[in-house]
Amino acid sequence: MPPPEPGGKQDAASYQRHFHRRWNHLQDRHVRTLAWLLDAPDLLDANAAAWQGKVATLGPVDAATAAWLAELDAAPEALHAALPSGPFTRLGRYAESLMAFYLAWQGRLIAHGVQVRGEKNETVGEFDFIVRDGAEAVHWEFATKLYLLETCGKGRHADYFVGPNLADTLGAKVRKIMQRQLALSSHPNAINHLPEPVHRAQALVKGWLFYQGGTPDTIIPEGIGHCHCRGFWNVLDGLDDLASLRYVILPRLQWLAPGKFRENETCGLDELRGTIRAHFGGNTMPVLVSVLETDGGRDGWLLETDRGFIVPDDWSRRAAAMG
């Protein structure tokens, strides 16, 4: 997928098309999500001078990894057993479990989820991953995030990208990672919890950014990858602008990989509108919608071509107040 020119437009569906070309043969939802984690462009540009080498990248998926994913798709039981269960599993914990499974298969995983405690047994922090890089041990802070560009931002700064639940911003998250979480290995108590000394610390960040009505002409903030996965956001009345026949409201643990569904799992526009209106009757959390079309074959699958958050009418006002 070629990167767009800085400040230029990118077709919102371009990453979905790329993903389906490479990974449409995968059937298991968790394997598809793992494929997305390995394949998706990084949210932070590893080559940006702003990060001073503190951004990790996985690089292209090689043939051996692609073959392993296909084998895993045919027999996914070991992966399923390694995943957290329960209705309230956090998206970040789910993604970490998938990444840990991959790193263990690679033989690079030294440790995962190592907590550091202080003198009074208080939690100082946690190492997401300690991974092998040649002869060195490296701390990876791993995050999967989705943010919406609120309307007054126009891409001027990462703080204008706001989480759907209004709990944080892209700018605040990156500062937390770079200034605090990556410094954990220098804490005097860290050495007591690490299996071996850490030589450096980096952030590995995947995710999606969403723009009102689609991808506008905008200036991407410094350090954000120009090739990032992207979608739209709109209020409920904006559903009329969607040009498709079938849709799915994505559960939180399906927010990462482009969707693949049977028709009986989908709904039409009127049903979608009614479901979202009922949701907003007692909930202010935006709803992530997958826009679908048939894959053109005879197997009955519908594939995601675009995605976007439908937000309450007052979401933009509340998001702007965070700035």
UniProtKB/TrEMBL annotation:
Superkingdom as given in the UniProt entry: Bacteria
Any matching Pfam family: DUF1853
InterPro entries, sorted: DUF1853
Name of the featured protein: DUF1853 family protein
Organism: Noviherbaspirillum galbum
